[in-house]
């Protein structure tokens, strides 16, 4: 995705704490290992943390913040590889790295109180009505 002409990564996670954010979707152990050996942060990140009926947030993490944490803790601690014999569906940013980048002083964030409002909406009827027009 490009924002104002520059590539940006957008990630969404749902849960009490931000965790399990995928850097790449793969279950192949060889590809995951190659990813660990070659990947480094190169795009700004928008992270949306949805915590239904509670507090979450939206974070803007510049690439230099990610790179600084990556350099500080190293690739082995920044990237969490999938466990062999499981099906986690991807390589994740570690909880330690995620906490560090979201709390960095150069990361911008807004807190969001996520609530579920009940609305009367029939998607099928809406589409039928639109097709009739």
TrEMBL record:
One annotated GO molecular function is:
endonuclease activity
Keywords assigned? Endonuclease, Hydrolase, Nuclease
UniProt xrefs under Pfam families: ThaI
Keyword Nuclease in annotation: yes
Write the protein's name.
Answer: Chain A, Restriction Endonuclease In Complex With Substrate Dna
| Organism of this sequence | mine drainage metagenome
